[in-house]
Specification:
Elements: H1 3-24, H2 30-35, H3 42-53, H4 56-69, H5 74-90, H6 92-98, H7 103-110, H8 114-146, H9 151-201, H10 206-223, H11 238-253, H12 256-259, H13 268-286, H14 289-312, H15 316-322, H16 338-342, H17 350-357, H18 362-400, H19 406-429, H20 435-459, H21 465-487, E1 489-492, E2 496-499, H22 513-529, H23 536-545, H24 553-562
Antiparallel strand pairs: 1-2
Helix pairs in contact: 1-9, 1-18, 3-9, 3-13, 3-18, 4-8, 4-14, 4-18, 4-20, 5-11, 5-13, 6-13, 7-8, 8-9, 8-18, 8-19, 8-20, 8-21, 9-10, 9-18, 9-19, 10-14, 11-20, 14-17, 17-18, 18-19, 20-21, 20-22, 21-22
C-alpha cells in the first residue's frame, strides 16, 4: 500500500476514534461543556494538557525552526518548556483553588468588575484566534501533501472534525479526545526519530545520538560555506534571543486554553499532579525535537554535497513535496549555494518529510501524517472551547443575559464554536506567516495581556480593577499594533516591499510582547497606587488563594502582620 493509502488508513482510524469519543462523552450542561464536570483524573489531564500544548507548532514546525535556525532556534525549546514550568509552579494550583470556568471568570471576580471580564474575554479571543491560525495552517499542510487535496479542503475537513467533537462533548469530549491524540502524536513523532538515530549512529536513543551527529553536521556546514550549525546568534541577535525566550515563557503561563485545563480536575492536589504528568509527557517530545532538526538538516546537506541540486531533483521525497509547492524546485540551478537551496524549502515540512527523507516504510509516513493532524486538531479544539466560553459564558451569560437558563447558555456555546471555526478556517487558508511564527505572535499577546494581571492578581492583593483594566488594555493594544506594523508591508517602487516597521529598538515582532508585558506591569502598578485599594472581601479572597488550604481569621491576621 502506498503513502496515500496508509495515510487514509491512519486518518480514518484516528478520526473514527475521535468522533467515537465525542459521541460517548457528549454533555448536556455547561459544567461538562466548559470544565468537563471537574472530574478528569490527574494522569489523563496531564496527557490532555500535553496534547493541547503540543500543537502543530510543536509537532510540525518547531523542529523545522531549529533545523533552519540552529542555536538560535533553541529559543522555542527554552521558552515553551520553561514557560510550562512557570505556569505549573506560579499559577496553575492557585487558579484551580479559585475555581470558576474561565480566565475571564478569575479576572472578573478578582478585580470585581464586569469591565475587566469583557476586556479579558476580548483578549482571550484575540490570543486564541491568532493561535488557531497556526493549527489550521498545519492541518492544510498535512492534507495537501499526504492526501493530495488542496490546503483549503484540508482546512475544511479539519474544521468539520473539530466541530463534531467540540460541539458534542465540549471540554469533556475535547479532554478525552486529547488523551487519544497525545498517544497518536507521540508514537508518530518518536518512531521515525528512533529509526533515523539508529541509521546514522547505531544508537536508537535520539537524545544521545545528537552528540555524534552534531560534530558531523558542523563539519559538513563548513565544507559547504555555511557557519557552524551550533554557532550562536547567527539568525537572531542576542537581544532577540533573550526577548523571544522571555515572551514564550510568560506567554505560556498566560495562555487561556492551557490554564483552563487545570480547572477540569477534582482539586488543587490533582492540579499539581496534572502539571507533573504534563511536563513529563511534553518533555518526551521536546527533548527529541532537536534530534529531528539536526538529522533532517544533515540528510539534506549531505544530499546536496553528494548530488547537487540537479541530482536532488531526482529524489522521490523532493518530487513529492515539490508538487505541493512547499519545495520550490523551480528556483533551483546548478550554481546555487547550499544556503540558497535551503531557502526554497518550507520549514513546516521538516518533521512530515523526515520519514520519506530517511526511506522509512510507507506506514510510518502515514502515521506521522496522522500524528501531525492529531497535534493540530487537539490544540484547535482547546482553543475553540476558550473562544466559545469567552463569547457564550463570559460575554453572553454574564453580561448580556445573566438570567439565561443553562440550556440556552449551552446552545450559545455550541453556536459560538461553529462561528469560531469559520473564522479559524479562513485564518488557516490565509495565514499571516508559517505555523510557529503565527503561534509565537499568540504568545506575545498572552504575555502582554494575561500574565501580569494573573501574577499580580494572585500575589499582590493591593492590585485593583482600575490598574488591571488599564494595564491589560495597554499591553494588548501596544503588542497587537506593533506586530501588525512589523508584519504589514508597503510597496516601494515597482517590485519592492518593506515592513512598515523593521523593529522596535532592535526587538522583532516575535519578541515585542516583552515590551507590552513591561508596559502592562508598569501601568497596572501606577494606576493601582493612584486609585483606592480593592474591597476587604477581595483582599481576603486573595489571601486564601495563595495558601494550600483555607486560612483561619487568626492566621490571616498573622499573615497581615508579617507582610
Amino acid at each position: 500500500m502506498g503513502i496515500i493509502g496508509w495515510t487514509f488508513f491512519w486518518v480514518a482510524v484516528t478520526f473514527s476514534v475521535y468522533i467515537g469519543i465525542a459521541v460517548w462523552s457528549r454533555v448536556s450542561d455547561t459544567a461538562g461543556f466548559y470544565v468537563a464536570g471537574q472530574g478528569i483524573p490527574a494522569l489523563a489531564n496531564g496527557m490532555a494538557v500535553g496534547a493541547d500544548w503540543m500543537s502543530a507548532a510543536s509537532f510540525i514546525s518547531m523542529a523545522g525552526l531549529v533545523s533552519f535556525m540552529g542555536f538560535d532556534g533553541s529559543v522555542y525549546l527554552m521558552g515553551w518548556t520553561g514557560g510550562y514550568v512557570l505556569l505549573a509552579i506560579l499559577l496553575a494550583p492557585f487558579l484551580r483553588k479559585f475555581g470558576e470556568y474561565t480566565v475571564p471568570d478569575f479576572v472578573a471576580k478578582r478585580y470585581y468588575s464586569n469591565t475587566a471580564r469583557v476586556v479579558a474575554a476580548v483578549a482571550a479571543i484575540f490570543v486564541s484566534f491568532t493561535y488557531v491560525a497556526g493549527q489550521m495552517r498545519g492541518v492544510g499542510v498535512v492534507f495537501s501533501r499526504f492526501l493530495e487535496v488542496s490546503v483549503t479542503w484540508g482546512v475544511v475537513i479539519g474544521m468539520v472534525v473539530v466541530g463534531l467533537y467540540a460541539v458534542l462533548g465540549g471540554m469533556k469530549g475535547v479532554t478525552w479526545t486529547q488523551v487519544a491524540q497525545y498517544c497518536v502524536l507521540i508514537v508518530a513523532y518518536l518512531i521515525p526519530v528512533f529509526a533515523i538515530a539508529y541509521t546514522l549512529t547505531g544508537n536508537p536513543i535520539p537524545q544521545v545520538a545528537i552528540g555524534d551527529v552534531l560534530p558531523r553536521l558542523d563539519g559538513l556546514q563548513r565544507e559547504l560555506g555555511l557557519g557552524a550549525y551550533s554557532s550562536p546568534f547567527s539568525n537572531l541577535s542576542m537581544l532577540n534571543v533573550f526577548c523571544i525566550t522571555v515572551v514564550l515563557m510568560t506567554g505560556t503561563a498566560g495562555l487561556p486554553h492551557v490554564i483552563v485545563r487545570f480547572y477540569t480536575v477534582r482539586d488543587v492536589q490533582s492540579a499539581r499532579w496534572s502539571a507533573f504528568w504534563a511536563l513529563l509527557f511534553i518533555g518526551i517530545l521536546y527533548t527529541a525535537a532537536p534530534a529531528v532538526a539536526m538529522f533532517s538538516r544533515f540528510y539534506i546537506l549531505d544530499s546536496f554535497a553528494q548530488l547537487g541540486p540537479s541530482g536532488m531533483q531526482e529524489l522521490g521525497w523532493i518530487q513529492n513535496w515539490a508538487r505541493t509547492g512547499l519545495i520550490e524546485t523551480g528556483r533551483w540551478s546548478r550554481e546555487m549555494s547550499a544556503d540558497a537551496l535551503l531557502g526554497t524549502i518550507d520549514r513546516d515540512i521538516i518533521v512530515l518529510a523526515t520519514p520519506e527523507l530517511a526511506n522509512l516504510s510507507n506506514w510510518v509516513v502515514g502515521l506521522v501524517a496522522a500524528g501531525g493532524l492529531a497535534a493540530a486538531l487537539s490544540t484547535a479544539s482547546g482553543l475553540m472551547i476558550v473562544i466559545s466560553s469567552s463569547l457564550a459564558h463570559d460575554i453572553y451569560g454574564e453580561i448580556i443575559n445573566p438570567q439565561a437558563p443553562d440550556r440556552e447558555r449551552l446552545l450559545v456555546g455550541r453556536v459560538s464554536i461553529f462561528a469560531g471555526l469559520i473564522v479559524a478556517g479562513l485564518l488557516g487558508i490565509y495565514p499571516p506567516g508559517f505555523v510557529a511564527e503565527v503561534v509565537a505572535f499568540a504568545f506575545g499577546l498572552a504575555a502582554a495581556s494575561f500574565f501580569p494581571i494573573l501574577v499580580l492578581g494572585i500575589f499582590w492583593k493591593r492590585c485593583n480593577r482600575q490598574g488591571a483594566v488599564a494595564g491589560l488594555t495597554t499591553g494588548l493594544v501596544f503588542t497587537l499594533v506593533m506586530i501588525v506594523l512589523m508584519r504589514a508591508h508597503v510597496v516601494l517602487g515597482d517590485a519592492l516591499s518593506a515592513p512598515v516597521l523593521d523593529s522596535f529598538f532592535g526587538i522583532n515582532a516575535q519578541g515585542i510582547g516583552i515590551v507590552g508585558m513591561i508596559l502592562n506591569f508598569v501601568v497596572t502598578y501606577v494606576v493601582t497606587k493612584a486609585t483606592p485599594p480593592p474591597p476587604d472581601d477581595v483582599q481576603y479572597m486573595v489571601e486564601q488563594i495563595r495558601y494550600p488550604r483555607t486560612l483561619t481569621d487568626r492566621e490571616l491576621r498573622e499573615s497581615e502582620t508579617s507582610t
